[in-house]
Design goal:
Helices cover 9% and strands 37% of the residues. It is mainly β.
């Protein structure tokens, strides 16, 4: 029985598209002897076939007739992840692959987007070790493919380019405190796109299995709501899988793990609270990171606990959440552009004092 892309997506826990439609042979007739079960991260049975994901990130199909395992793909770059860090005592450093410089990781930081020029020059000033932001993503009809928005990012950050139909920049038209916030603008997607994006990300955070992750930020949505506003990701997993704060099509704030079968942690109240337009909204989350069902998911909107449950919060046991993406990390609803202002962000491994 052929395996659909959707089912393989559910299997590998990473959201990776499979090669079924390319005409290539999916599995080699050769195989290997079974790998010890202690080295297996995940086992799934799909359409009567058994698949194994090793703790090194390799995906195998088990041939029930011969007992051999057939390699399919590598979906977790464990060696690359481990080579990206250096530990000295209690301190963990991210290694810059271009300069071999060791940069301290961050488990606690704040960002209010102050002391920056507005517009594209302010965006350029945000990127770097001092403030901790590493990249921006501007996916839109004018830059629809990865190669397009990566090239646009390079043009903007080297000083020779400007925004097109999407933008992310310090702005003084709305702010929750101080005199600036971050304004994200994303146009509506075209019919051949999954979503548009307008966001910034930091590659310097460091959270792993068993850790508490706390986040708080203030968001002001204009005339339409984005689909996702905060993503916590592992860049060494295919599709940068991770956990994210999202707004569903009904306008309700919730949480989704972008992995496995994409479990969603929704409001269960009889009268769920909608994410309002045209006003500042405090969003606070607390995750206990776990690759099993004992993970903790708590989400507050303007001080009210709207999600309080347990479930998987980390795609794989050895994965490190190293990237925090903020802004319009996905805009996929309707035919209106989305404008989102963000201010007063906080990240911590401890509860906030107030």
């Amino acid at each position: 029985m052929p395996i659909s892309k959707k089912r393989i997506f559910m299997l590998v826990a990473i959201g990776v598209a499979v090669i079924v439609a390319t005409g290539r042979t999916l599995f080699s007739p050769q195989g290997i002897d079974p790998i010890p079960e202690a080295q297996i991260e995940l086992t799934k049975v799909i359409d009567g076939m058994t698949f194994k994901l090793t703790d090194q990130g390799e995906l195998y199909r088990v041939d029930d007739r011969t007992g051999k395992w057939h390699y399919h793909d590598t979906v977790f770059d464990l060696k690359g992840m481990m080579a990206s860090y250096r530990v000295e005592g209690d301190a963990t450093y991210r290694i810059n692959p271009e300069t071999n410089e060791s940069i301290p990781t961050r488990r606690r930081f704040r960002e209010g987007f102050e002391a920056l020029p507005t517009g594209v020059e302010g965006t350029r000033r945000m990127i770097g070790i001092e403030r901790g932001w590493g990249a921006l993503t501007l996916q839109s009809p004018s830059a629809p493919q990865v190669k397009d928005y990566v090239r646009l990012r390079s043009q903007i950050l080297t000083g020779g380019g400007d925004f097109r139909d999407a933008s992310v920049a310090p702005d003084d038209s709305k702010f929750r405190s101080g005199s600036l916030s971050l304004k994200c603008v994303a146009p509506p997607r075209t019919s051949d796109m999954i979503c548009c994006k307008s966001s910034i990300s930091s590659p310097l955070i460091y959270f792993r299995q068993g850790d508490d992750f706390w986040f708080r930020g203030y968001f002001f949505a204009g005339s339409s709501r984005p689909h996702t506003i905060m993503d916590l990701e592992c860049e060494w997993l295919k599709q940068h899988s991770g956990i994210r704060v999202m707004i569903d099509e009904m306008g309700r704030l919730g949480v989704e793990l972008k992995a496995l079968d994409k479990p969603k942690y929704r409001q269960t109240m009889n009268d769920p609270i909608l994410f309002p337009l045209g006003q500042w909204v405090e969003v606070k989350v607390h995750f206990v990171l776990s690759h099993t069902e004992d993970g903790v998911i708590q989400l507050w909107q303007d001080g009210q606990l709207v999600v309080d449950t347990h479930g998987v919060t980390l795609p794989l046991k050895r994965a490190i959440y190293n990237s925090l993406e903020i802004g319009i990390s996905a805009h996929s609803y309707g035919d209106l552009p989305c404008e989102l202002w963000v201010d007063d962000l906080e990240v911590s491994d401890q509860p906030f004092a107030n």
